[in-house]
Design goal:
The chain is α/β, with parallel strands linked by helices and about 525 residues long. It contains 13 helices and 21 strands. The radius of gyration is 23 Å and the shape is globular.
Length: about 525
Amino acid sequence: MSVLTLTLITALICCSLTGETANVSPPNIIIMLMDDMGWGDLGVLGQPSKETPHLDAMAAQGMLLPNFYTANPLCSPSRASLLTGRLPVRNGFYTTNAHARNAYTPQEIVGGISKDEILLPRLLKKKGYVSKIVGKWHLGHRPQHLPLENGFDEWFGAPNCHFGPYNSSFRPNIPVYNNSEMLGRFYEEFEIDRKTGESNLTQIYLQKSLDFILRQAEAGQPFFLYWTPDATHAPVYASRPFLGKSQRGLYGDAVMELDYSVGQILSQLQTLGIDNNTFVFFTSDNGAALISAPHQGGSNGPFLCGKQTTFEGGMREPAIAWWPGNIKEGTVNFQLANVMDLFTTSLALAGISPPDDRTLDGLDLTPVLLNRSHTLQNRPIFYYRGDELMAVRLGQYKAHYWTWTNSWQEFKEGIDFCPCQNVPGVTTHDQKEHTLMPILFHLGRDPGEKFPIRVMNREYEDVLSRISPVVQQHKKSLVPGIPQLNMCDLSVMNWALAGCEKLGKCLKGPKSEPWKCDWPH
């Protein structure tokens, strides 16, 4: 055999192996988690202004999942569930200070994500993934709770909500981090104009994401990007080119800028030629905050109530899956799914076995997404508020075991989670238990939860006979995690953080005087 022939054969073998490797390489994963964006904020889901052309196109090119849920009607617990694949009551992101109370991570919280939890980016390292979070973290702001201590390789963003501005003598402004050091604070180095709503934060978050994608594409490494901008959380903001553009006011401006940003990210994936090897999922952390609407809050479409509640408006989320060449374009799938499924699905896509030493609540959605099966098992959706199982959905039916919006005292003070949506006996301002006779709705016929199925109806008996065993088994097998959101202390706020010395931004905090956090609703 001549040297030339041998060289050609060797080259063909190398090319063949290279092509085979490329085909089986794990896909990049991008999870886009919005903040307080409602199911009804997207044009593809019926928003009449039709101001989300990029998200609508994303749905046309991918799969729309109208029955997608969060794990909790509040920000921090839902984010903890997404990254652990476990209900908040299992991963510790709840409180036992009072019954059925929503809790989160303001900067006076002592706790954060438990060291016993295994987060998605840590597991993805097994297959060489480089992981970055861009945006809001919200799983605890003390050093041991931050992203780089929990599996992420890079971070640009903030540990808490962008509330403020604050007087640094009694409460510091929230810091913005680059990896493990702060770069400045909201309302100081990172401006948000409370009068006009102008801020460049979404543009900064977009550029940081595009830079990361480019770097990883050039390096040929699989990556996980967790993109969590918070412009639609009150106080809402948008950059100057988007101010005044929406028919919906400032909140709509923020949505339009986020929609534009999604378009830019998908366009870059296509330009780099990695769109066929990148799984992208868009959703929100909880329902729209109707208490802030219409100027500072969004729409939950036909659903009842909003953020903070376990009615559909508080927990059903917009959801789009996009993966050209793999997810059939233009599909709509009514599989019951939730944010915890993103944990298990991401591991499946990466070819990584999920942890077998703990209970996981997320299912692998790849059979549905990749059209290998129309639906998965008839799985339940559990609606938790703090330490209480408030409701369960199975198929088209939803059973409420507890109902509560918020207290009469708050309601009389103008705090209303269900404005203009009073349903007698359902949107209660006292905590009402219905365990012996749950309130049942058929969400196909009645998505707004306005017409309970009559107790004496044969349908009621039949449905309850199917849901009751599911609830009994769930409660029997549930082992709650240690609650992480019980204690508060002013001394743990964002006073003096890594990097503050370089900036001259270190602040002196008070002495430690911990107390049990008060969670009013």
